[in-house]
Amino acid sequence: MSATIENSASPAGVTSGRRQYSRWTSLAVLCAGTLMTVLDGNIVTVAMPAVQSDLGFTGPGLAWVVNAYLIAFGGLLLLAGRLGDLVGRKRMFTAGLAVFTLASVLCGTATGQGMLIAARAVQGAGGAMASAVVLGMLVALFPEPREQARAIAVFSAVGSAGGALGTFLGGALTDTLGWHWIFLINLPIGVAAWLAAVRVLTPEPGAGLGRGADYPGAGLVTGALMLTVYVIVGAGDRSRAVTLLLAALALALFAAFAVHQTRAARPLLRPRLFRSRLLTGANAVQVLMIATMYGFQFVGALYLQRVLGYGALATGTAFLPAPIAIGVLMLGLSARTVARFGGYRVLLAGLVLITAGMALLGRAPADGSYVTDVLPAMLLLSAGFAAAMPALTGLAMSGARAEDAGLASGLFNTTQVVGGSLGLAVLSTLAASRTEALLADGTAPLPATAEGYRLAFTVATGIAAAALALAALVLRERRA
Fold it and tell me: Has the keyword S-adenosyl-L-methionine been applied to this entry (predicted)?
């Protein structure tokens, strides 16, 4: 009663309360849209055997169900982020949700290989449109540092936990309803998220296409990014000479883009963006950190299935402690620890835990068990990621100007995709090569497989340690 009287006597208090409610409601809408795209990036992996059996994919052909999404998603993030700054971020976000949802229906109703792969590419494009502008919208909604730290913690918890939840939901939906439902489930979620976004999100007028469009630059960088992701995700299926040739072509496109940016009247990627030590350093650290975490998720799932003998649903269930721990720690502690100790210290502490968790996994034996050899490492990795990701996001976005927030958001998401793809390609290739070499020497299949995964975990430990060293050197907060 007293609160009601107080607010009625103070119109400013009512206005402030409404604005606060609107901002946190907007955050919930952004998180819902992000959760849908994040889930889809992981939910497919568990359903791959069912997709292969139903549609008759070959082994190399099946990989394109994942690759088509990754190439479109990773290649278009930077362009989508810049277009969001120009046409308005709300417009780009809602358009992305619509494209993603419609493409999900096409995936779920696909009756042939070509239709599924094409729909996955369109789905990746929609995911890029929606994801690229989210961080820019978030920092605009919450300019005050403490509230921004809380908002980033909530957003990071949803995104990080959603990745692990995708493994569980993929197994559950595939086993109970069939693989089509891993895509069709996006229809009600996508429609609800789109309607909420149209109603709740505040329109942000963009600068206009005529004041910043760089179409030649957009073509060059999008082609370069798509080719880079293509080279990474398909490296194991091609000869070394072809891989090197494609990598050289990607570098040539990046070089042409860099030269064009110095001459363009309205460059797509302003050089001043990379003068920010925090933005550039945070993106570099993120490549290494995400490579480690994606490697854990992929190689860890293979270890559970091929060494410990877990099925799809059991593997998904085994990963559930990760999203639970990440969500609890990010929501309960992350914002407060960042506010108290600073993003730099919290990031370093998180990277120490990630390195320790990967080192523990590097000891996982062929006759290991989930409780003693996987769960403790998973909890360390989850705690480390819960600390590091919000801190790293805050450091990165603090290095961008308001007018470049969409582009900075797209860049940050792009390095996530590149880091994840790089980690999967490198660690899975190392594991497979080590196992094949041991099998050729006469080692039994189970010990050879376990040794391959141990090598991958050991290399991932080195990558995490490199991320820690780079963060310590580059991201130290300067005192006035």
Answer: no
pLDDT of residue 118: 92
Residue 6 lies in a domain: no
The answer to which of 184-188, 236-240, 412-416 has the lowest mean pLDDT is 236-240
Q: Residue 139: which of 454, 409, 352, 379 has the closest Cα?
A: 409
In angstroms, the CA 329 to CA 175 distance is: 31
Range of the domain at 208: 21-474
Q: Determine the Cα–Cα distance for residues 286 and 474; give it in Å rounded to an integer.
A: 13
Angle at alpha carbon of residue 119, lines to 118 and 122, rounded to 5°: 95
In the chain, what are the helix, strand and coil shares in percent, each to the nearest 5? 85, 0, 15
Q: Which of 479, 157, 478, 477 is nearest to 343 (CA)?
A: 477
- Is the pLDDT at 402 greater than 60? The verdict is yes
Residue whose structure tokens are 């502490």? 349
How many structural domains compose the chain? 1
Q: How confident is the model at residue 147 (pLDDT cuts 50, 70, 90)?
A: confident
Q: pTM for this structure?
A: 0.74
CA distance 412 to 393: 8
Asked whether residue 335 is domain-assigned, the answer is yes
Confirm whether 353 is domain-assigned: yes
pLDDT tier for residue 399 given thresholds of 50, 70 and 90: low
Q: Whose structure tokens read 């963006």?
A: 273
**DSSP character at residue 385:** H
CA distance 255 to 253: 5
What integer pLDDT is reported at residue 4 of this predicted model? 35
